[in-house]
């Protein structure tokens, strides 16, 4: 269902911002009128921008995630203490220090007072509460186990946050080293080389080919730096547009999984997220076919997405779900076998929990391997680049001083 962002006036004439899910813009305006909101501005928001896909760690911001996690824990505690839902939200509204989140909670509380359920209220803020969150809350409300569903959600969000932190930490360190290497190279090429070039040129001797190439590169960077920046920005934009296409996204996802060490880390992250999410949804009481439909949209990888959808079709037809997961090559044979055993024994949920736990432990080892492998590789590459620049400068200086002829 499309989502619309709005700016409106409430019953007290106060301007409020938010988002609302509706079939069309006119339906959104009608729904807002029932909530006594006077629409000032309304615009459609692409559902893709609010999807729950991972995309190398993209979910919602760490600050937003912490607020949602704390909200979930507190709400679960108060629900278990038999505090009314509207009263619980009122307490959290008073405690909230973030104006935007406070407004969201107020809007949700108003919807509850008008007769709507919690899941429908949460659904209107996909940037804060994703499909999994809304679905588990809906199941909890339908079964009368909202407190249990919220507990499962807080556990799930906490584990997912921990896993994503590990992945980001593993990828951030190499990225920082690469940036430092590039900055050092640019500094040498634009500051050091030009100063020494004057001395080299004044000798009047023919320059070595490597030195001439280095000087030409330096002059280009100094004279056309703005063109380099434009080219990089345009190239980044083109790459982003390509990745957003179906063909580009599939190619990118396949390429990521084939990168040595890093591909293994991403594969572990995808499978762990699939296992923990599916286990949480099944544990909440949702049918496995519906659970697989939701999980397919949050795998963050088109190859895994296709495999999960095929698994859903197979289980609807009475077959197993392990086979398409195994054929995707994202899920390893051992994990696929464990899922198959869980299906046959009727303990799929507990087996998925075990799989997620085992992979999370394996992720720690992979992170250590990345640190131990990538760091020396980047240092060697940096040493080669810097050494080549120094060599191109020292060689003609040695020739000028006739040291090379001794």
Strand order of the largest sheet: 2-1-3
| Main β sheet profile | 3 strands, antiparallel
Number of helices: 16
Helix content: over 70%
Please compute the radius of gyration using only Cα atoms: 28 Å
* Assembly context of the chains: single chain
Strand content: 5-15%
Distance between the termini: 80 Å
Mean of residue pLDDT values? 77
Secondary structure class reads mainly alpha
SSE topology string: EEHEHHHHHHHHHHHHHHH
Overall geometry comes to globular
Number of strands: 3
Low-confidence stretches: 46-60
What does this structure look like?
- There is one protein chain.
- This protein is mostly helical and 406 residues long.
- It is built from 16 helices and three strands.
- It has a three-stranded antiparallel beta sheet with strand order 2-1-3.
- β1 and β2 form a beta hairpin.
- The chain starts with a strand and ends in a 6-residue tail after the last helix.
Give the helix/strand layout.
Blueprint: E1 3-9, E2 15-21, H1 25-34, E3 38-45, H2 62-80, H3 85-95, H4 99-113, H5 118-123, H6 131-143, H7 146-202, H8 209-223, H9 225-244, H10 246-258, H11 262-283, H12 288-296, H13 302-316, H14 322-327, H15 333-345, H16 348-400
Antiparallel strand pairs: 1-2, 1-3
Helix pairs in contact: 2-3, 2-7, 3-4, 6-7, 7-8, 7-11, 7-16, 8-16, 9-10, 10-11, 11-12, 11-16, 12-13, 15-16
